[in-house]
Amino acid sequence: MLKTVVVIHYHELWLKGRNRKFFLGKFLLALRRTFADFPTARIRQPGDRVVLEFDPDVSVQTIVARLKRVFGIAYFAVARSVQRGSLDDLELLCRTAWDEVAPLQFSNFAVRAKRSDKSFPHHVDEIERRVGKFLLENLRKAGRNVRVQLDDPELTCRIEITPGPMLAYAKRIPGTGGLPPNTTGRMLCLLSGGFDSAVAAYKMMRRGAHVNFVHFWGGGARPGESSVHVARALVERLVPYQFTARLYLVSFESIQREIVRRAPEQYRLLLYRRMMLRIAEQIARRNHAQAIITGDSLGQVASQTLQNMVAVGAASPMPVFRPLAGDDKQDILALARHIGTFEVSEEPFHDCCPLFLPRSPALYASAAELDAAENDLNISELTRSGLDAATLERYSYAGGRVERIEAGNTAIAMTKSAAAEAH
């Protein structure tokens, strides 16, 4: 029995010039890790695509589901493969192509061939003419009212002549696109538990960033409503895209109470966010991350006016990326559904940010106003207390399964220079 064969065409890798080898290597590594539990799977590179070969008993549904989580794929197809035999090779291709297109409904079609094995005796134009003629004649015999259309056909039957088997396929499955995992640097995401921050993390992961997470949680939640379980579930949904992740859990209520006690009421929410940013910056530096990700969307809530985002961001010298800044809520929710985080974020949980929420939050604060509002706060001590209370969990994805390892207290120590910057 012939193996199950999948043809993969990658996304942006061909644009990378001299760096193409690096990106392609990361892409192939991602495929190997994705199918690590299939030791007999084989990866080949005929020309500018990748061919995967699996034992015939491997579930096609499993293959398709996993490939949809591999960044860097433009599209892929489960192909019919045929070994060259005693019959005329073109006759074999014609019959294989017929098996592929006969069950499909279409009114016009074209045949496109690609020959990466130049030892194959028939040229591309000859393959296309021969297979196209065979398909048209047999479709007409079957009473199908179809025609050949070379420009923008409804269906394209693709023929691939590789150094191994000959391949035919007509159903292309869209990939996730983007860049291969772990190719563009490290970032840390402030993961709230809501819809936005998980989608923001995904968008940066899709651009090749390796993302770790920090979640700030507060007390006062009823049983079953803790935000921690939501943060964990979100990381479990996201980690298959990049294979490993860290989740830092920071108890935040004591810091909030100190802000409530010593700072003006209208600035509370913004000061919460500034403290989160300072603590996140220290965690990011420990992880050699170069930027922080937030789920801010311009104008969505009071704390996300342009002035407030600038004022909050001024609390940390580390760059803050806001990949959802220009997206509306419906765009964000649609992507959350697509990546599987919508159902998790929809669960009830206790969000620490609304704790002690001001009656009239400031809408257009400046960095100078927030600096003044923090005059009575010991910023370095609050930052240190958040870091001391942080716990770490590690996540890994392999063989179709996510594993979580609790690492306990992180004991994140601030350097003197970092403490000075925080103050």
Brief characterization of the structure:
With 423 residues, this protein is an alpha/beta fold.
Tell me the Rg in angstroms.
27 Å
The CATH topology name of the largest domain reads Rossmann fold
Structural class based on helices, strands and sheet pairing:
alpha/beta
The assigned CATH architecture of the largest domain is 3-Layer(aba) Sandwich
Distance between the termini: 69 Å
Count of alpha/pi helices: 14
Draw up the topology in text.
Blueprint: E1 4-10, H1 20-34, E2 42-44, E3 50-54, H2 60-67, E4 73-82, H3 89-101, E5 108-115, H4 124-141, E6 147-148, E7 155-161, E8 166-169, E9 173-174, E10 186-190, H5 195-206, E11 210-217, H6 227-238, E12 244-251, H7 253-262, H8 268-286, E13 291-293, H9 306-313, E14 320-321, H10 329-339, H11 342-345, H12 367-373, H13 379-388, E15 391-398, E16 401-409, H14 416-422
Parallel strand pairs: 5-6, 5-7, 10-11, 10-13, 11-12, 13-14
Antiparallel strand pairs: 1-3, 1-4, 2-3, 4-8, 4-9, 7-8, 12-15, 15-16
Helix pairs in contact: 3-4, 5-10, 7-8, 8-9, 8-13, 9-12, 13-14
